[in-house]
Design brief:
Blueprint lengths: L2 E5 L5 H14 L11 H10 L2 E7 L2 E10 L8 E8 L8 H15 L4 E8 L3 H9 L3 E2 L3 E6 L5 E10 L1
Helix pairs in contact: 1-2
Protein name: N-acetyltransferase domain-containing protein
InterPro entries: Acyl_CoA_acyltransferase, GNAT_dom, Mito_N-acetyltransferase
GO molecular function: acyltransferase activity, transferring groups other than amino-acyl groups
């Protein structure tokens, strides 16, 4: 079945909340420690510059949020976070989401997409970002605390859009 990305709709929020919270519970990619309640999810996704969902048939299988990375003189730099449902991983949904986010970043007048904290153990994301032309800016040693209390390095990445 074909996967396509579109702007989220109100009826998608419960599925989006579930997918987002899966990633939060895993504790290996997002900085958040607490899951989103349904009311928090409604507000959170609405407040973004753009929220896209990957859909397979009628099922939301992934999502991303796009927003400024900073304010004022730096708000032309966008930031995104991606989440794919555990049961739908391995279908290149992440790649589809990242490609769409680059298009949406340009459409929303961002000049750059910057990822502040790609966890070094997230090898598939790092491989994907490099494949799509993102540049790694360096390494922040021990920048991410894993669920077991150990620390992993993080890598900032960017791409001009």
């Amino acid at each position: 079945m074909t996967i396509f990305v579109r702007a989220y709709q109100y009826g998608d929020i419960e599925a989006m909340q579930q997918i987002w919270n899966e990633v939060v519970h895993e504790g290996i990619a997002f900085p958040q420690k607490q899951p989103l309640s349904l009311d928090e999810a409604k507000t959170f996704f609405k407040e973004q510059t753009y929220t896209g969902v990957a859909v397979e048939g009628e099922t939301v299988v992934g999502l991303y949020i796009l927003h400024p990375n900073n304010i004022g003189r730096c708000q032309h730099i966008g930031n995104t976070s991606y989440a794919v449902s555990n049961q739908h991983r391995g279908k290149k949904i992440g790649e589809t989401l990242v490609k769409d986010s680059i298009i949406q970043a340009a459409a929303h007048h961002f000049r750059i997409l910057q990822f502040n904290a790609v966890v070094a153990t997230n090898h598939s994301a790092i491989h994907l970002y490099k494949k799509l032309g993102f540049t790694q800016l360096g390494t922040i040693p021990g920048g991410f605390r894993l669920p077991d209390g150990t620390y992993a390095d993080i890598h900032p990445f960017y791409i001009e859009v």
